[in-house]
């Protein structure tokens, strides 16, 4: 969407006032930023939430400690990889080519 879509929904004066308050941030078409968030949540789950935590206060403390450690270590997410690696990691997403069997004896 753009700010112009506000003018399709609201009267011009109201659309103008709303448009002044908006700052549009474009995200990747295919949601690459979601991949980064998903990777980080997976790391948190493996490192912090792999056991049962019975009290919400304890959970909050554990998550806060994990977050502080993660931030202080300046952890990064390596989410891009080469095409050859993608074909291995994402093999299930690539179409399977079926090659016809040609019977040379019948020709």
TrEMBL record:
A Pfam family that this protein carries is DDE_3
Record's superkingdom? Answer: Bacteria
Which Gene Ontology molecular-function terms are recorded?
A: endonuclease activity
Q: Where is the Tc1-like transposase DDE domain?
A: 1-59
Please provide the record's keywords in A-Z order. Answer: Coiled coil, Endonuclease, Hydrolase, Nuclease
Q: Does the keyword Hydrolase apply?
A: yes
Q: Which residues form a coiled coil?
A: 49-76
Q: Does the keyword Cell cycle apply?
A: no
Q: What is this protein called?
A: DDE superfamily endonuclease
The protein's organism comes out as Anaerocolumna jejuensis DSM 15929
Record lineage: Bacteria, Bacillati, Bacillota, Clostridia, Lachnospirales
């Amino acid at each position: 969407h753009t700010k112009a879509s506000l003018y399709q929904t609201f009267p011009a004066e109201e659309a103008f006032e709303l448009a002044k308050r908006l700052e549009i941030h474009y995200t990747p078409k295919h949601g690459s930023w979601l991949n980064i968030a998903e990777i980080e949540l997976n790391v948190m789950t493996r490192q912090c939430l792999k056991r049962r935590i019975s009290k919400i206060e304890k959970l909050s403390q554990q998550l806060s400690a994990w977050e502080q450690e993660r931030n202080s270590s300046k952890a990064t997410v390596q989410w891009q990889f080469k095409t050859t690696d993608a074909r291995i990691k994402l093999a299930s997403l690539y179409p399977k080519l079926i090659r016809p069997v040609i019977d040379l004896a019948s020709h």
